[in-house]
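ok so I'm stuck.
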Amino acid sequence: MRLSVVVLTYNQRKVTERLMGTLLPYAAARPDVEVIVVDNGSTDGTAESIREMGVKAGAAMRVIETGRNTGVAAGRNRGLQAARGEMLMLLDNDTEVTAGTLDGLVDFLQHHPECGLCAPALYGPDGELQDSAKPFPGIGLKIRHLLRHGKLTAAERETMAGRHPFYVIGACQLFRREVWEKAGPLDENIFYGPEDADFCIGIRKCGYTVDYLPELRLTHHWQRATRKRPWSRLSRLHMKALVYFYRKHRQWW
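replied:
not stuck anymore, here's the structure
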């Protein structure tokens, strides 16, 4: 198996169905590609609907049901552990893919052995470029986001213009199995963010690069759950995860 695509979902049936409408035809046309959907305890019929879509598409697809919301890192680990591909992709369920972008990512990774993880540029459905290549997510940056209502800082604009950011968000990340075995698994102490930054740190510590490929693009219906509801339970879990992340890496700014 050449490529395994792992998609995590939780009570977002329509959102996940939209992604599968673009991903399953890609997988069905390629016998060396499998799709693994990890359903993190949905109660809206997501698992049943996606299974049916997989059968109709004729794609190599499996649905893993965790039975409860285990968090992003733990849910994705379940999918990665079940994957059989030489290359592994983490893909958010609120994306839409094209064959050109997925093939481009795979081709880049195959021809750049120094690369540990690569990611495309993300665009909203309105065509707006999203800030998916990031500097260190320190406290200062988080405070500036609040004061600037989410507008990019100078450090973020500089990072987006470069090839090797501190990290790329987990909406779409491609890496080799051997890299995941060295740098992973994802830290399950992080329920929701910044498991993507933490994973990229581990990859660089293993001597690989993290590559942002703006020449490849993916549609991302960015939900920004914690910004929309800053005092929700999910936001509190995110803040707890950030404190853990800062302590783990002994860096706060």
